[in-house]
Amino acid sequence: MGDVRLMKGNEVIAEAAIRCGCDGYFGYPITPQSEVMETLMARQPWEQTGMVVLQAESEVAAINMVYGGASCGKKIMTSSSSPGISLKQEGITYLAGAELPALVVNVVRAGPGLGTIQPAQSDYFQSVKGGGHGDYKLIVLAPASVQEMNDFVGLGFELAFKYRNPALILSDGAIGQMMEKVELSDYKPRWTDEEIQEISGSWATTGKKSDRERNISTSLDLDSARQEQFNHKLQAKYRAMEENEVRFEKINCDDAEYLFIAYGSSARISQKAVELGREKGIKIGLIRPITLFPYPTKAIQEMLGQVKGILSVEMSAGQMVEDVRLAVNGKVPVEHFGRYGGIIPTPEEVLEALEQKIIGK
Amino acid sequence: MTATTEINKIINEDNLVYKKTNLLLDNEMHYCPGCTHGVIHKVIAEVIDEMDIQNETIGVSPVGCSVLAYNYIDIDWQEAAHGRAPALATATSRLMPEKYVFTYQGDGDLASIGCAEIIHACNRGENIVVFFVNNAIYGMTGGQMAPTTLEGQVTATTPYGRNTALNGHTMKITEMIALLPGTRYVTRQSAETPAAVRKLKKAVRKAFENTTEKKGLSFIEIVGTCSSGWKLTPTQSNEWMKENMFPFYQLGTLKDE
Amino acid sequence: MAKFKGAIVVETEKCKGCSLCVVACPTGVIELARDVNAKGYHYAYMANPDACIGCSSCGLVCPDTVITVYRTKAS
User: Which of B11, B193, B197 sits opposite C7 (nearest CB)?
Assistant: First the structure.
């Protein structure tokens, strides 16, 4: 066993960043995720690992600091919550357009607008369909526990650098604020300048050496033919992610006749609803998407021979359900159940929704 | 001896006194004839060359006419979203404190959409150099009003002249920036005469030397022309600038600590 | 009589004919050519080469850095 602690999800994001060799964090306070930067400032990682932590003047500045830092081949991250993530969309599409690896954490709260500070999952569309302009995708990881808040920081950076693409941890206010047991990752040193040269020397703006052309970190190409070619390259990258990086968890699916599909906090509640249903003799299973892009479409399709109906459970008015319906393509009934505005559904409500919307129909 | 043979005698390597620095790439500049950007690019490239810091310098280009600045100076570049160059430079400088980091921004980029980013980078005293090119108009989008557009000045969006009641007042952002404790060197220069170019070059050198000494933020405004936006010839533009811009944007150093 | 003799070489294909060098030249050496380059610009050239003192003023103000300047002591 490594370093086991009882910690808040948001604090764990900060701790995991320091431990995975993150070079820089740039953020702006917003509830319910301010503990990320507060924890970093209290930990003073610049004394220990040399990691830079800076409170920016706005979310807009913070994400553009991420762009600058990521351009240097460094491991850079930011975190925010829904209204702040909306502000960061400009920077996120520029990161995608310049093919820069970076990690963004969204501890989602209910919207639209200022909404409320309570948890929600209503930023699914923004996260997986491209919240900013242009044809781009983020690698989207959905933690369902404080442990995964730890694990996905390292994983997020790993995938971001593997594909030279921004990655997003799509959490929510419940997981950010909850305290849970967590086994923290071991410390990994920050990359040395030599390692950065080896990993990212072909594109990182670290100062032009005489043995190479200048590196330019840009999303601009005014030549339409080249711009189209570049978009083809991006699309090929996204297809490779779909091929290689789909992650999900199946719970009680072997004999399931009905299926919940839920991620993050909703998956925890749905798991309890599976238990309650099975106590009543209903054979329910749960598929928990861990990557929301790439989406576990095939995992859902593989269940279609055995299940009679699917309930997509989300703390939203029905966003992920569209991807479930695309996967199912009309072969079995698919319904949505959600509470929103900051309300977390109960397992009883979830089971009742399955009974009414799917089994009773 | 004929004139031609005499000229040919003068033109040889031993007599060379002025040529394009190797740091300026051969790419033909996309700027309009007479554009001040070209002169400023050249001066920056010359200073980087003379200080021998090519491999330690990272430029951040803006959105605006100089968005493609990275095509002209042979160093590593980051191309920022509109107005955000100081945020990129902040991170770059903090993550690589031994490097020379500069932003190159126009009046729309720096004084309008990027007002927050520049003020806060200046206030934090980031160890960077900022080049602020003020020609009192938006060039790339076709000559619209900038925050620095003079009262009465005709632009595409102030076709009857800038009316302060309708369009707000002309903004002297450099004076605002000089008030911030994070800035160490704040100066306003121009580039329309050989003497002005020489002075500008001294200022650029001093700014980069401030980075060496980790003094904090050096801010150089360059009052320039936009003959396309102003609808004047390049030489008329210089005259218009002297008559109208210089009395309002007075040249000289506002702060040197 | 000037102490120095100078000469300039203009990269005519890159010259945009902005005239800033014409104005900057203290001895009236430079004019714009009647001919144009491939882009249609009347490029700068030494119309009065004898007057050139190699002071580099033209080079300094040239936005496209197309002027190279040579200078030697007047014989």
Answer: B11
Name the superfamily (CATH) of residues B38-256: Thiamin diphosphate (ThDP)-binding fold, Pyr/PP domains (3.40.50.970)
Of all residues in chain C, the one with the smallest CA distance to B238 is C20
- B24 contact C CB<8A: yes
Of B94, B96, B117, the CB nearest to A206: B96
Q: Is the pLDDT of residue C1 over 80?
A: no
Residues B157-175 have pLDDT tens digits of: 999 999 999 999 999 999 9
* Contact status, residue C61 vs residue B197, Cβ threshold 8 Å: yes
Say if CB B135 and CB B36 are below 8 A apart.
Answer: yes
Burial of A169 (C-beta count, 10 Å sphere; 0-12/13-18/19+): buried
Task: Say whether C49 and B7 touch across the interface (CB within 8 A).
Answer: yes
Residues (pLDDT < 70) of chain B are 1-2
Do A182 and A83 have their domain in common?
A: yes
- In chain C the domains, ranked by start, together with CATH numbers, are 4-73 (3.30.70.20)
- Distance, in Å, from the CA atom of B224 to the CA atom of B232, rounded to the nearest integer, reads 13
* A161, A193, A225 - which closes a domain: A193
Q: Across the interface, do B91 and A57 touch by the CB < 8 Å criterion?
A: no
pLDDT tens, position by position, B12-61:
999 999 999 999 999 999 999 999 999 999 999 999 999 999 999 999 99
What is the predicted pLDDT for the residue at B2?
A: 63
User: Which segments of chain A have a pLDDT < 50?
Assistant: none
> Does the ipTM surpass 0.90?
yes
What tens digit of pLDDT does each residue of C19-75 get?
999 999 999 999 999 999 999 999 999 999 999 999 999 999 999 999 999 999 987
Min Cα separation C5/chain B (Å): 8
Identity of the residue numbered A206: T
Which residue in C70, C71, C75 has the most chain B C-beta atoms within 10 A of its own C-beta, making it the best mutation to test that interface? C70
Is A58 within 8 Å of B96 when comparing Cβ atoms?
A: no
Contacts of B67 in chain A (CB under 8 A): 220
B193/C61 CB distance under 8 A: yes
B partners (3+ CB pairs within 8 A) are A, C
Same domain, A145 and A275: no
List helix spans (H) across chain C: 20-24, 57-61
C contacts of B32 (beta carbons < 8 Å): 16
Chains C and A touching, counted as 3 or more CB pairs less than 8 Å apart = no
B187-203 burial, b at 16+ Cβ within 10 Å, e below that, comes to bbbbbbbbebbebbbeb
Interface contact C5-B10, CB threshold 8 A:
yes
Query: Quick check: B164 and B177 in contact, CB under 8 A?
Result: no
Can you give the pLDDT at residue A336?
Answer: 98
Total structural domains within chain A: 2
Whether C2 shows a pLDDT value over 80: the answer reads no
Chain-centroid distance of CA A189 in Å reads 24
Do A353 and A272 have their domain in common?
A: yes
Domain that holds residue A68: 3-193
pLDDT tens track for A177-209? 999 999 999 999 999 999 999 999 999 999 999
| A104 closest CA partner among A22, A47, A217 | A22
CATH number of the domain at A300, please: 3.40.50.920
Domain C-terminal end among A193, A214, A232: A193
Q: Is A257 helix (H, G, I), strand (E, B) or coil?
A: coil
Domain ranges in chain B? 38-256
